[in-house]
Amino acid sequence: MSAPRGVCFIGIGNMGWPMATRLVQSGCDVAVSDAVAGRADQFAQANGGTAASDLVAAVKARDVVITMLPTSGHVEAVVAGIAGGLRQGHILIDMSSGAPAATRAIAERLSSKGVIVLDAPVSGGVSRAITGDLAIMTGGDAEALDRVDPLLKAMGTTIHRIGAVGAGQAMKALNNLVSAGGFLMAVEALVIGQQFGLDPHVMTDVLNASTGMNNSTQKKLRQFVLSRKFDSGFGLDLMVKDLSIALEVGRDHAAPTPLSALCREMWASAAAMLGKGQDHTAIAKLSEAMAGVTLGEATKKVGPTKA
C-alpha cells in the first residue's frame, strides 16, 4: 500500500496550525489553506510547507485532504469548493468536531467520485496539538485508515478506531459531554466551598489528590479559572455546538438524555449571557454570577450560615 502523496490541510486555526506543523515536521509535503487572509502565508513562512493560493490545484496535486474547521457546515462549503480537484483515490479526513449525519452525507456524495471520507476528531487541546500527543477518534474504512496511519501518528499518540464513518465524531461529542459536565460540577463545588469559607486553591489540590479528580480539576481550574485568564484556546460556542451534537446523536437513537440536556442548557445559557468570542472556561462566570461571588476572592463566611 503506497504512502499518501502529500496533504492539503484546510483550516489552520488554534488547533489546525500546530497539527499541520507536526505534519511538516514529519517530512510530509503539506499545503495549507485558511479562510483568514494571509494566514496560510504566515504558516509557510514560520513552519515550511506551501501556502495554497489555488486550493483546487493544491488538492489535485496531493492524495489526502484534511479539514479542521469549526462546524460541518464549513466542511460542506469547503468540499463544494474543492469538488473540481477531488479525484478517484483521494482520501478526505475530516478532523473537525462535526455532526456524524452530515459527515456521512458528505461521504455518500463523494463515494460516486471514488473519494473515501474518514472522520478523525481530536481531543487534548492546543498544548497536546503542539507536542503531537492528541487523542484521535477515527471512523471509516479500515484500509484507508491503514494508509493514513502515519499522518495520524504524526499528530497523535492514541488513535482509536471507533467504527464506520461518523463514529469518531459521535465519540468526540460524547467525550466533550462528559468533560463539560465534569467542569460544571468542579466549578460549582469551588463556589460552594468558597461560600463555606474554603480556599478554592486548596480545594483544587484536595480534589486532585482524591476521587473528585478529573481533567478539569487537573488542567483547567487553576490554569484558567482561578488565574482569571480564561484562555484555554477552545471557544464556548464550540462547546455548545459539540453538546448539541451529542444530544442529536441521543435523539436519533431514542436514548434518554435528561442530565445531558440540562448540561447543554447551562452551557448555552452561559454563551448567551457572556456573548460571542468567549473561551469555554469562562462558563465559570455563570456559576459565580448566580452565587454572587468571584472564585479566588477572600470570603468572610466560615461554616454554615445560621437560619
Task: Outline the structure in words.
The protein has 307 residues and is of the alpha/beta class. Helix content is 52%, strand content 12%. It contains 14 helices and nine strands. Strands 3-2-1-4-5-6 form a six-stranded parallel β-sheet, sandwiched between helices. Strands 7-8-9 form a three-stranded mixed β-sheet. It is globular, with a radius of gyration of 21 Å.
Write the layout of secondary structure elements.
Layout: E1 7-10, H1 16-25, E2 30-33, H2 39-47, E3 50-51, H3 55-60, E4 64-67, H4 72-81, E5 91-94, H5 100-111, E6 116-119, E7 122-123, H6 125-131, E8 134-139, H7 142-155, E9 156-163, H8 167-196, H9 200-208, H10 215-219, H11 221-226, H12 236-252, H13 258-274, H14 284-291
Parallel strand pairs: 1-2, 1-4, 2-3, 4-5, 5-6, 8-9
Antiparallel strand pairs: 7-8
Helix pairs in contact: 1-6, 8-12, 8-13, 8-14, 12-13
Radius of gyration from CA coordinates: 21 Å
Question: What string gives the helices and strands in order?
Answer: EHEHEHEHEHEEHEHEHHHHHHH
CATH architecture of the largest domain: 3-Layer(aba) Sandwich
For the biggest β-sheet, the strand order reads: 3-2-1-4-5-6
- Main beta sheet: strand number and arrangement? 6 strands, parallel
> Using DSSP, what is the number of strands?
9
CATH topology tier name of the largest domain: Rossmann fold
Number of domains: 2
The CATH top-level class label of the largest domain? Alpha Beta
Overall average residue pLDDT:
94
Shape category: globular
List segments where confidence is low: pLDDT < 50 over at least 5 consecutive residues.
none
Strand content: 5-15%
Helix percentage range = 40-55%
Total of helices: 14
- End-to-end gap: 74 Å
Give the CATH H-level superfamily of the largest domain: NAD(P)-binding Rossmann-like Domain
Which structural class fits the helix and strand makeup?
Answer: alpha/beta
